[in-house]
Structures are given as structure tokens and as C-alpha cells.
Amino acid sequence: MKHKILVARAIFPEIIDKLAQHFEVESNQNDETWSKAELTERLRDKDGAFTTGGDRIDAEVLAACPRLKICANMAVGYNNFDIEAMTAAGVLATNAPDVLTETTADFGFALLMAAARRITESEHYLRAGKWSKWSYDMFAGSDIHGATLGILGMGRIGQGIAKRGAHGFGMKVIYHNRSRLDAALEADCKASYVSKEALLKTADHVVLVLPYSPASHHTIGAAELALMKPTATLINIARGGIVDDAALAVALREKRIAAAGLDVFEGEPKLNPDLLTVPNVVLTPHIASATVPTRLAMADLAVDNLIGFFKDKRPLTPLNPHVLAL
């Protein structure tokens, strides 16, 4: 008898077909937005779940779904999982790292360039029919080549952004991380380790690529924004909640920093409405990994984790691997 799997959001048809070769699958190809109660009800008779970053798995859900043994996230982030509660319930959690590294680094740099060079502002201006003549300061932004790039969070994506800046644009790269990279990695990235305060004070462009946790909540708030240069750009491709979006909107409106680019938001898909009222911010709907090859690779890895777990308890990217010994 096949194990039962729930696919919580719409996904590539070929991924559903691959799952159906191994499991009895209930899918959500209509891409309905389920409440927590609806998700729980659909999980009650399931052995595993294919989840995305918006599907919250916590102690309450787990208590109602005793058959559940694995949740495979189609994302590198997993703040939708209560890992402690999942471990206590004997439920494996997996994510999809590595396959999105280069694509996300590409997007982070694209967002940086769009914000620093005021691309969104200038496009809105043009589309509104306001462009009638050239002027010396029309949408004059900040240079990227030769500028100082500061990266908070120097995992694989941060390293990818560092290499693009250092090797492609001749930028001086500084970074802050929970632990310093080894000398070889620093040399490869052409990056120098500095304190968080020094990074914020020095960088022309600050990129956030650190994971979200209670400890990193509002890593960038009013006090940190006050340390930044008035000409600086802030980019968040990490997770919502790492930036105090309300404080950022104020700083942007008051021109205490020059610009920002945000792909993630507190409480997304909702966002702080004040961000919609300031022109000097580029806003995108959590699409840093959104290329077809990368999203397909992410989904494929989630499927392989489900198959590996139920076949021989060998998932590829477990987050709480000691559950496998239970």
C-alpha cells in the first residue's frame, strides 16, 4: 500500500507525476490558500507533506496529525517549521538548499542595481508621461562599480553576491557573519571580515542574506539604519522580519538612506502599507529564486527527500536528522 502525500500548493505537473509513481497523492493544483484548520484537516490521514514557505507546521498541527512522518519544504528557508516541535513528534523536516544559490545571488545583485540606479522610480516616471526633457540630475543614483559592498550573512548566497561584486564590478567587499569564513573562502570572495557596526557605517550598499530566527528579528531597525550613510542602499533577499519595515519606510521617506530593494516582508504576502508610499524602494514579491530551472530543481529535491525517506530513510537534506534514528 502506498504512503499518502499532501502537496500543499500548486506545483509543476511533472512533479505531481513523479510523486504519483511512488505515493498516493492529494494535490492542490487549484492553488487554494488554505487556513491552518484546512491544512490540518487535509494532513490528518497523510504520511508526508510537500510544503512551501507559507505552510506552517507547528505543535498544534502535529498533534492533530499523528500519521505524519516527514515535511519536505520546497525552499531553503524553513521558518514555517517549528523544528523543535517536529523533532519532539518524530517528524522529519527537510529543505532545498544549494539548488537556488546562484539564481538567488543573481537576483540579489539585480535588486541592488535596480535600487541604486533608481530604475523603478524612473520607469514609473516615464510610464506616467512625465519625461519631457533631459536634466543633469534626473534620477541620478549611486555607482556600483568601485563601491563598498557590505554583506550581512555570508553563507553560499552571500558568497555568490560577494563574488559578483568583487570580480564583476571591482567592489570592495566587507562582510559580517556569526562565524568568520576561513582564509581561502575569504580570498575567493575577496572579502574582509568586519563588525556589524563597521559594516553599516562603511558600506555603500548593504545586502542582507542571513537566516531568520528570533535572534535575527529586526537585525536592521531604526538604530541600525541611523548608522548607515545617507547615500547608502539596503537590500533584503533574506527573510521578512529581519528588517523593521516600518522603521525602514520612515528612513526612506526622510532620505536618511538613499534607497532600498526588498524581496521579502514582515507578514508577507501582506506588507507595511507605508512602503507603498515611498518612491525610493524597489518591491518584488519574494521571487529571488524564480527561474523555471531553479524552481523545478527545488521541487525535485523536495520530492527526492520524500522518496529517499520512505524508501530507506535516506533523505538528501534533513534538518533534524536524529529523527531518522527513531
Give a topology summary.
Blueprint: E1 4-7, H1 13-20, E2 24-26, H2 36-43, E3 48-51, H3 59-64, E4 70-73, H4 83-88, E5 92-94, H5 101-116, H6 119-127, E6 148-152, H7 156-169, E7 172-176, H8 183-189, E8 191-193, H9 196-202, E9 205-208, H10 222-227, E10 233-236, H11 245-253, E11 259-262, E12 281-283, H12 292-312
Parallel strand pairs: 1-2, 1-3, 3-4, 4-5, 6-7, 6-9, 7-8, 9-10, 10-11, 11-12
Helix pairs in contact: 5-7
Please give a structural write-up.
With 326 residues, the chain is α/β, with parallel strands linked by helices. It has two domains: 4-97 and 292-325, NAD(P)-binding Rossmann-like Domain (Rossmann fold); 101-283, NAD(P)-binding Rossmann-like Domain (Rossmann fold, 3-Layer(aba) Sandwich). It is built from twelve helices and twelve strands. It has helices at residues 13-20, 36-43, 59-64, 83-88, 101-116, 119-127, 156-169, 183-189, 196-202, 222-227, 245-253, 292-312, and strands spanning 4-7, 24-26, 48-51, 70-73, 92-94, 148-152, 172-176, 191-193, 205-208, 233-236, 259-262, 281-283. The strands form two sheets. A seven-stranded parallel sheet has the order 8-7-6-9-10-11-12, with helices on both faces. Helix 11 (245-253) links the parallel strand 10 and strand 11 (259-262). The chain is globular and about 70 Å long. The model has no long low-confidence stretch (mean pLDDT 97).
